[in-house]
TrEMBL record:
Keywords: Phosphoprotein. PROSITE patterns: RESPONSE_REGULATORY. It holds the Pfam family Response_reg. GO terms for biological process: phosphorelay signal transduction system. The modification 4-aspartylphosphate is found at residue 52. The keyword Phosphoprotein applies. This is Response regulator. InterPro entries: Bact_response_regulator (IPR050595), CheY-like_superfamily (IPR011006), Sig_transdc_resp-reg_receiver (IPR001789). It comes from the Bacteria. Residues 3-119 form the Response regulatory domain.
Length: 123
């Protein structure tokens, strides 16, 4: 079973994402801020991290920096979820080390399809 971490500070959105992805049989874990996300990433292996850009404690970019600088699992796929949708924002996020980018608001079904595509890439 594929493991996904949802790091999102907005509880309603986090629950919506969890409900959507649990229906597809993924093992879902959650974090409400960047520090909690780093703790989970440091103690468990995830196949995919859905990471909010703007979170308390540590931003999504800071968490990506920790992961990509080798302190945590470097091979984990990361999708940044953000309301920042200009092309310069996307370039900043991808340059920081995110593998994928999804602008808010998004359709839960579109997210589920994208997650399935990402997780099937390495099979």
């Amino acid at each position: 079973m594929k493991k996904i971490l949802i790091a999102e500070d907005e509880e309603v959105l986090r629950m919506l994402i969890m409900d959507t992805l649990e229906d597809d049989g993924y093992d879902i874990h959650e974090a409400s801020d960047g520090e909690e996300a780093e703790l989970l990433i440091g103690s468990e292996e995830f196949d995919l991290i859905l990471l909010d850009y703007m979170m308390p404690a540590k931003t999504g970019l800071e968490v990506i920096g920790t992961i990509r600088n080798g302190m945590l699992n470097r091979d984990t796929k990361i999708m940044m979820l953000t309301a920042k949708s200009q092309s310069s924002d996307e370039q900043t996020i991808l340059k920081a080390g995110a593998d994928y980018f999804l602008s808010k608001p998004f359709s839960p079904m579109a997210l589920a399809e994208r997650v399935e595509e990402i997780l099937s890439e390495n099979e």
